[in-house]
Hints:
This protein has about 375 residues and is an alpha/beta fold. The protein folds into two domains: about 15-265, Aspartate Aminotransferase, domain 2; about 265-380, Aspartate Aminotransferase, domain 1 (Alpha-Beta Complex). Helices cover about 40% and strands about 15% of the residues. It has a seven-stranded mixed β-sheet, with helices on both faces. The longest helix has 21 residues, at about 360-380. The model has no long low-confidence stretch (mean pLDDT about 95).
Amino acid sequence: MYLDNAATSFPKPEKVYEAVLHAMREVGASPGRGGYRRSLEAGRILFQAREAVADFFSISDSSRIIFTQNATGALNLALHGTLAAGDHVITTSMEHNSLLRPLYALRNKGVELSIVPAGSDGVVSVEDIRHALRTNTRMIAVGHVSNVCGAIQPIRQLAELCRTAGALFLVDAAQSAGYLPIDVENFSIDLLAAPGHKGLLGPGGTGFLYVASDVPLTPIIQGGTGTLASAEEQPLIIPDGFEAGTHNLPGIAGLQAGIEFIRERGVAAIFEHEHALLNQAEQALRDIPGVTIHGPSDPFARCSVLSFTASGVDSALLATELDHGFDIAVRAGLHCAPLAHRTLGTLPGGTVRLSPGWFTTSEEIAFFSDAVVQCIKRIRKAA
């Protein structure tokens, strides 16, 4: 049983597999690298996928979508491509290392960094971020949903704060894309980074960065673009100059198919399905003595994941017992977000995290809950 969709969604819709195979077997060529039929067909697939992403996130100009290998690549481009020494960035203590580590690297190059602590429930205060503003604040960068506890951050209010302060607003949608509605232009998001392989149900090795039309961006990778080949400098044209090298066309085709699958069912229906499963799991876990659920107490204030610990039980050992004894896949540990665990009080052992998906059933959650009871009893007895 697979309950680690927050890391990578599985299984994928059948049409995703079909789109990947079609791009590999029937098309084969690279987009923008030739004038023959197969290359033109590859370009058509690339364009349609870009249009699908733009439509899904209410982006009026699909050329502002830059395809990347994952959300990490998108975040690195957003940060290294916009920030310079002397700029000030505000982020939160709930962020994933894919956002924090590029910021740490930029701090070593003269970028000023403020990390605002979130509350013990994982939700950051807009007022706390307001108090962190400086005259040189260039950007506020936050994850929409915590990958550790599912806390949903107030991105609408943060966007308004950015507008008032004249700062860029970068949103890491790794855990919200496909689960929560995101209207980029209505929300006033300047930079949106998302992976394709999580809630968007696409293959691994896919992701994108949206860049608003008034945001200057510098490429961080140089190479072939299929356009302006005679120029010595990397083109600054979006998206061409920021997608150097060969595209992952099968993955991008699969990403489009994943988005189409979500469109057919509706983001609200997917959220309601997973919300019901998480509530079912939470109710069962709260009946287990010594189990603590981490994150917001209001189920509607969190999304995608449920994190818990059991007193006297090592989280990694519990996850291993679930895997070996019941073939249940959950994630344990720090989830690449050590500051979030410090905020939640779950250092150093971290938490056990379950994240159901569209194909997860209520029966599977019941089986998982029973297995947790048995594993905790076994571990405590052995201790």
